[in-house]
Each structure stands twice: as structure tokens, then as C-alpha cells.
Amino acid sequence: MNDILNRLEATIAARRAAGDAGASHTAALLAKGRRACAQKFGEEAVEAVIAAAAGDREELVKESADTLYHLLVMLAALDLPLSEVLAELERREGVSGLAEKAARGG
Ligand SMILES: N=c1c2ncn([C@@H]3O[C@H](COP(=O)(O)OP(=O)(O)OP(=O)(O)O)[C@@H](O)[C@H]3O)c2ncn1[C@@H]1O[C@H](COP(=O)(O)O)[C@@H](O)[C@H]1O
């Protein structure tokens, strides 16, 4: 799974560098700034929630893909590499559920 996410992250970076908002959805979204990217991620996540609540597996696959793509665009808008998110997941792997909860203060 990391392969496609890493490739997509590289594509997003390339589209941003090219900066052709007329030809690229990614470049157009990034040009609108981090708030617009965050809002779009939120919209796509809500659409995934709606599909899940309706029990629509086919729609959930599509909305989940939209959500992952827009998560990567949002991270790019903040110059936050995906590797930092994956490292956080890996760090949590080494912590039990209860210890993790305590570490997060809850
Ligand atoms: N994975 C995606 C991807 N998922 C969703 N989307 C786009 O995200 C948009 C979200 O759907 P919406 O119905 O909300 O879009 P919309 O109606 O255009 O809404 P607005 O963006 O105008 O608000 C659609 O235009 C989708 O095409 C994506 N656009 C691009 N990618 C990947 O990014 C790569 C680069 O794309 P470009 O930047 O367009 O070259 C592509 O090769 C893909 O791999």
C-alpha cells in the first residue's frame, strides 16, 4: 500500500512544481492554499462516512480513494511528508492500546 501512496505523493509534488492549474486538479487545489485543501479533505471524508453509514461498499471504495488522495494533497499543502505520518503509525505499533491512550493524555 505504501508504494501507491508514495508514488501519489511524488506525483502531487511534481504537479505542484509544474504549477499548471489549468491542466492539473492537484495544482489547482494547491494554488488555493492550505485551508481549501483541508476543506476538500473534510468534504471527501464526510462522503466516505456517508457511504459507510449507508453500507454502500462500492461507493466507500471510491470515496476512500478520494479521501486518501486529498489527505496527501492536504499534507503537501503544509509541506508535511507522508513518511512523518507513517513513522507515527510505526511508533504506535510499539505501544499497547492502553499505554498509547495514557501517552495521549486520555
Ligand atoms: N487520485 C486522484 C484523485 N482522486 C480524486 N481526484 C479529483 O478530485 C476531485 C474531487 O471530486 P469532486 O467531485 O469533489 O470534484 P469537483 O466536482 O471537481 O469539485 P471541486 O474540486 O471543483 O471542488 C475530482 O475532480 C477528482 O478527479 C483526483 N485527482 C487526481 N488524482 C491523482 O493525482 C494525479 C494527478 O492528477 P492531476 O493533478 O489532475 O494531473 C492523477 O494521476 C491521480 O493519480
Topology:
Layout: H1 2-18, H2 25-31, H3 34-53, H4 57-77, H5 82-93, H6 97-103
The protein binds phosphoribosyl ATP (PRT).
* Tally of discrete structural domains: 1
CATH class category name: Mainly Alpha
Q: State Rg.
A: 16 Å
Helical content, roughly? over 70%
Strand content: under 5%
**What's the story with the biggest beta sheet?**
none
- What shape does the CA trace take? globular
Distance between the termini: 30 Å
Structural class: mainly alpha
Uncertain stretches: none
**Helical run tally:** 6
Average the pLDDT over all residues and give the rounded result.
Answer: 93
GO molecular function: ATP binding; phosphoribosyl-ATP diphosphatase activity
GO cellular component, one term: cytoplasm
Enzyme class: hydrolase
Family: Belongs to the PRA-PH family.
In words, what does this structure look like?
This protein has 106 residues and is an all-alpha fold. The protein is built from 6 helices and no strands. It has helices spanning 2-18, 25-31, 34-53, 57-77, 82-93, 97-103. α1 crosses α2 (25-31), α1 (2-18) packs across α4 and α3 packs antiparallel against α4. 17% of the residues are buried. The structure holds phosphoribosyl ATP. Phosphoribosyl ATP binds next to α1, α2 and α4. Phosphoribosyl ATP (PRT) binds next to α1, α2 and α4.
